[in-house]
Queue: 4 jobs
Job 1
Amino acid sequence: MPRKDETRILVVDDEPDVLELIVFHLEKENFKVAVAETGDMALKMARAHVPSLLVLDLMLPGINGLEICQLLKRDPKTRDVPILMLTARAAEEDRVRGLELGAHDYVTKPFSPRELILRVKNLLRLTEDNRDSVEVIETGPFKLDTVRHKAFVDGQPLSITTTEFKLLCLLTGRNGEVQTRETLLRDVWGYAPTLDTRTVDTTMQRLRAKLGQAAKHLETVRGVGYRYLDSAS
């Protein structure tokens, strides 16, 4: 992970108390922090100075967080910026939609500052790990170039998020081995297995939807987790 004093995190929220809380804990960890209170301001700032990570509230005046996520992921300049969503606890549909649009993870309000910092650090580490990797994985219908963060299925380019890419790399690299949800949460996200494992299921659902026929290679092991099979019927 890059040095904290070289990492710029953009925090977007229209609640002053929430902004103050997040900024306090990020700066306590020696991160550089910029803030925006509206969607328009967030887009302008992200495009002018691409952040290392975006902490994004979904409920914003004007352009909402889902629209911001979609616009940033469409722009080659900002599409690789990891996005951590802030959502209301009851807004499951918005959480799923945000993940479908390319957000990497979410934290529900009210949230634990300690958990927020943990997720920020792990997203930054995940991004840096993918950048430093030198392996090309070729198995079944997949070719995964971890240097350029490129994924191919049967020779065709595949558009997936950083987290989906790392999940696919981990499963294909452990061909035939059952991976529990807790193992995936630890090895892909870097989280303690006591945290909510629905994150794994949501990401797997999104990944499978993008793989088409190749999704059959990612097998659900009922009550346990998932595994990759290079030969699937």
Note: The longest helix spans residues 113-132.
Job 2
Amino acid sequence: MTRGMSSDSHQHAGHEAVDAPAAPKDWVFIDTAPQLAAWVAEMRQWLSESPDKRCCLDTEADSLHHYHEKLCLLQVNCAGKYALVDPLAVPHVDELLALLDAHELWFHGADYDLTLLRRTYGWSPRVIRDTQIAARLLGARQFGLAALVKNHFDLDLCKASQKADWSRRPLPPNMLAYAVDDVRYLLPLADRLVAGLREKGREDWFHQSCRSLQDDVAARDKAPRDDPWRVNGCGRLHPQGLALLKGMWDWREGIAHERDLPCFKIMSNKQMVAYAEQFEAGTVPLTPPNGWRPRWKQQFHEIVAAVTASAPSEWPQRPKKTKSRLSDAQRDAIDRLCGQREAIANGLDIEPSLLGSRSTVEDLVVQGDPVTHLMPWQHELLFDAVNQALGLAPAVTTE
């Protein structure tokens, strides 16, 4: 295999290293529109004749290396025929997307891929299947692709290129081999997982969960966006700390854009919140991180001075939200439903969160609408527990 190696192919200690013969390349790299058109036409013919009509898709991006994240590679598997498509060289891939839409399309951990594909092409596949979801519904606690391939096929997948810069060109052979292996094992893995789902009577759970994932990605894309500088952890800040946080965010955006770097490589969200908390406390003078260049340090001090000199009326305010006030009965109902959820999940040997997160349970009890918050298979399993919880929980009050 190109990405991993079996145990007997490792070199023995003390032996002189020799180059193993290269495996024959069984994939094509596509970086022109004519190449893509020819390959898509070939795959239409191949899939029409193949007993297996399934396709697989994976993506690689450069979010760890550049300010503006870009889709940098499409890895495609059409019933055992592999291609790596360069979207930086071939920006229009409508023919390929139409081909994939005509078939059952498999991913592993599709959430990020679906988000990236919507953002890049405005495209959501007609139907998806996700090996990660399938594995979790069968009780897997380690459900990364490498862990599943190791568990099912006793093959070790190399992760060396996982965080590489996929915008670089030309892509070296080791990265190309890594990329192909991300779709190479999905169909044989899918065969085993689907067989397990059918044996346990959970295939419909799987289909519902895949559809729900697509709906969640679409809903996130359409959801109104709050001020982006209000990062996780800022809810405990007061207006003065929020003012510093916003100043640091705006500065960081400018530097990251100027240097074409991801924002976290300039300053992490956690660091910014910590500085804002220190600023509010006023117990120690703020000093920029060690290793920063002098210009950055000077600008940091200027941000602090500007916020210090500004009027409170200019500071951002904490968002005012109408919070649901839970009654004691509602809290008891939530705890009881969570306990029953965990007991049912343990009996099925799956994670309790697959039956609904705690926040989902809270919303369900407060709003009293299981159809909105649960998939049909979840509702069926929790039916008695949900009815009992809703019977115990009175109407919600707000403040």
Note: The chain has three domains: 23-222, 234-314, 324-398.
Job 3
Amino acid sequence: MSRPAHFPAVRELAASMASGECTSVQLVEDCLARVRDVDPGVGAFLSVDAEKALEAARASDERRARGAVLGPFDGIPVGMKDVIAVKGEPLTCASRMLENFTVPYDAHVTERLRAGGLIPFGRLNMDEFAMGSSTENSALGTTRNPVSADHTPGGSSGGSAAAVAARMVPWALGSDTGGSIRQPASFCGIVGLKPTYGRVSRYGLVAYASSLDQIGPMANSVEDAACLLDAIAGPDERDSTSWREAPPAFAEAAARGPERPLRVGLPKEYFGKGLGAEVEAAVRGAVDTLAAQGCEVSEISLPHTEYAVPVYYIIATAEASSNLARYDGVRYGHRAKEAADGIDLYFRSRGEGFGSEVKRRIILGTYVLSSGYYDAYYLRAQKVRTRIREDFVKAFESVDVLLTPTAPTPPFRRGEKTGDPLSMYLADIYTISANLAGLPCMSVPCGLTEAGLPVGLQLIAPHFAETTLLQAARLYEGSRLS
């Protein structure tokens, strides 16, 4: 499958609208046409409210005609992963449990988009309740990789990555609990950024694992991702974990570049057994590119990396078990048509509404929280999580950013891992640690395999050092594309 023509950078789109070369209505109509033409072969969108998007575009054009634009990107559409609340639109989390649910409020990020004149556009497919690495766990449809229809787009934000990669939208929002922005970005050959935990409010994000979840941008360039991060980042009193300080101007800082040569660390644990040869070659090539730009490259160690996957699948499933208990067949969501009593209603509704992967994680999470096992599993996992975080703190004493592969392999074939959950979980082996530590990180395209499949490199920075992260990514992107 070949990609449609590339969208211009968002600044070029904004400049075209400012000069009168195009209008927001024309841009939205172009996106709608691309969805009609391209999405039947990709399956990125679960739904698009065309009239609502066009209404917002007409309002944007009217503001521009009055000289009253709300921001630099007023009138540009943003694809929305179907785990983020957009008032009056479906919020299904790609699950039968919420198949007919319409959300009555906006998420904080949606409010910020609207405040800047950006247009929430469509509902993008995902793994059910963000639980998966291939978007094959969606109960509402399958998403294909726009680069190769035989391969998965990654997950859980596979719909967001595919929509951007297939040029159906200029950019999109995803969510990342253990790699769900970065891994699909790598698989689809785009940029994906997970901010520091707390940098972007989680209000209006359907919770999977509350201590890990973060919303972030997915785009065709580092600059575009920085611009979208500017649009959504900021404090929110409704999220108790939201960072209270106003964020810096990320796009402006990224454009300035680093003030001195960056110190880049290569965690030796990320370049060992299990890493595909073509992925390693592409990432090593990226290291050489940065070294040629004056970066100081050194090997470092994150010794507790080997525990990241088991720690993640204890903590994340425990939190999922708690968060998903609210879907009881009574207040909202799927309700079984027949039940003998209240308990039977609860069991039937959840049994019918949840898919197999969600059930698997609820069972595992309930087990590790149960009496007699809490200390042995959940409490111990939290202690090891602290050790993982301490590894990063120590590493950043000597380096500015870490550089690793985003995923151990290129995109895998559809159906290749669906019968082996452990193999699927290991697809996130390089992304999970940053979530456990709450660090900002991003995936940037760094080449193709011989078969033409994308490879991504991952950059990780200290807490709230998104500017350094973006400067490193921009430095590499600019060097690679020049």
Note: The radius of gyration is 21 Å.
Job 4
Amino acid sequence: MVRKKKFKLSTTQIILLSFLVTILVGSGLLALPISSATGEAVPYLDALFMATTSTCVTGLVTLPTVSTWSIFGQIVILLLIQIGGLGIITIMSGIMLLLNRKMGIGDRLLIQDAFNLNTMSGLAKFVKNVLFGTLTIEGIGAILYMLVFVPKLGARGIWISIFNSVSAFCNAGIDIIAENSLCDYATNPLINAVTSALIILGGLGYIVWWDVLRVLRSRSKKNRRVFRHLTLHSKIAITVTAGLILVGAILIFIFEYANPLTIGEMSLLDKIQVSLFQSVTTRTAGFASVPQENLTNASSAVSIILMLVGGSPVGTAGGMKTVTLAVLVCSAFATIRNKKSATLFGRHISEESLKKAVAVAVSFVTICTVSTVLLMATSDASALDAVYEAVSATATVGLSRNLTPSLNTIGKLIIIVTMYLGRVGPISLAVALGSKNESQNVISEPTEDISIG
């Protein structure tokens, strides 16, 4: 008698389904009348859109968050943001550890895939550190926000501070302050500094945190060369992040300097402050201190590039990631200079890393292109607005040139799918839906050179 093969989900499929189930449960809760500020149920498509943008920590919204949702609805949204930023697998593993339950091999594989880690050693400690570090930083951020919001808004400022801190750290870009996001606080130094710090810390990734702390603890007071002793991953993440933020801020400052609709009428210090924030928030955070539709075309193009790159691996940010960009650029220069392999900070980049970087870049560009074409085909959006929206959704940023609220039903569905694909990762999706790897013992196809370029 032939036994039927038992169906078993792969770890990647479980991760994909965990996000999907979270979105569906969240949309069901947000579709309830209790979630609406008016007491009347929000249309399910808008509830689904809100659940998706929250779980995928994107920030694009079809309805104003501050005026559409009740306190209950806002709590649901905040929980979805936290789950989306950390991942349902991480949270469930944290609960298991709190209950003193040991993590099995299956649990460890799930965490390894969820964070794209190269090893399974020390995963229990890693999860504890992630949860503790996240709650600590979000708590500090909330307290600092209260210094501004409580004196101005009273008791409501406490809830706004907590919500904004979680949203900023998770790079969600959703807020309950006003319908124009942070535009009313564009020149507030504390709000800019706290929000930027939360975005950058979430975007750098947990691996960079622990690596920096490791080096700081191990170095003597006389030897303060911390950067030299960091891992290659941390060096790339920190260097590329700092470089993109600085270059982005300078370009936006130049292109917007005389624009009266953005920073043209501000003082020099405020111009610098707003330009820097715009460069930081495009790293998949999604908070807006100036209306994005008022940016010049040049600034919009810079923002699109920054959004597409996004943050760093093993963090809360989306996008292709800084390490992917560094690997691709260095590999390109190595090829131009006729070198056998690319190097970064005195280390050779493996061929496997290069293959992954190419696959990620191609996947992201493909999703952005398809989403842009579909948006232009189903709406009257301009090319710039459609590209901005598609890249923002794919890289889970949340910035929009005011196109999201005007999307029709098909347009909303396109963005919902795009946000989901951008969050779970094109490569993870391909692995989950694809067949098993072919045996390595089969005869390989013949090799033949082709002309490129």
Note: DSSP finds 18 helices and two strands in the chain.
